[in-house]
Amino acid sequence: MTTVRLPLFPLNTVLFPGLVLPLNVFEERYRAMMRSLLALPEDARRFAVVAIRDGHEVAPSAPGLPDPTALPERGAAAGFGPDPARAFHKVGCVADAASIRQRPDGTFEVLVTGTVRVRLLSVDASGPFLTAHLEQLPEEPGDEAEALAEGVLRAFRQYQKQLAGARERSLTTSAQLPEEPRVVSYLVAAAMVLDTPTKQRLLQAPDTTSRLRDELNLLRSETAILRSLPSLPAPELTRAPTSLN
User: Fold this and answer.
1) The whole model's pTM is what?
2) For residues 60 and 72, is the Cβ–Cβ distance under 8 A?
3) Among 22, 34, 79, 236, which is most buried by a count of CB atoms within 10 Å?
4) What angle, rounded to 10 degrees, do the helices at 181-191 and 208-227 form?
5) How confident is the model over 117-128, as pLDDT tens digits?
């Protein structure tokens, strides 16, 4: 297995390979990370995104409660407890920073694309921001990926129509859905309205077939639920919501 050490950006969301995520970076530890990345060649500006299991994306910035005299936590691991590795899910995604733009106030607008899945081996909190030792995870297709991908796409189109609600239009009228099973599995996982633990489960599926099978069950279940609910806003398929750190 290939291992690598990269800066670590914990979020309350899951990043999937091939998907785009805009970030609004304002906290000092993550500003330091972006400044460090800007010092690297453009093709080396990478970091790992992991979903938070326990803790907070934003370190406390005011005296805590119930003790109003308590000082806010500071440092790379602030908000994540004495052992930050325990606060994160063990499987994440490497993010390629396609664009890093510093604002006049020192905050950053960042646009990243997920590339490959990685397993978190260890976390280092000794520097100005977290870094991690990571192991790249292979993506095996499994035995039924092609057939399942076709079924997932059909079910996803029905799910889209339910999300579109009274407008009754496809969310991809101007975009062709992919056919390659692995790409289908990640696109559908990112586009469905699911909680973080469920998205995390899809990210760390052992192979594409397992992920697609899980998605097919989820799509059927969620579509049935949506039929009985009022119209819901539809998410953009190739982006997750902007995440604050």
Assistant:
1) 0.82
2) yes
3) 34
4) 40
5) 999 999 999 999
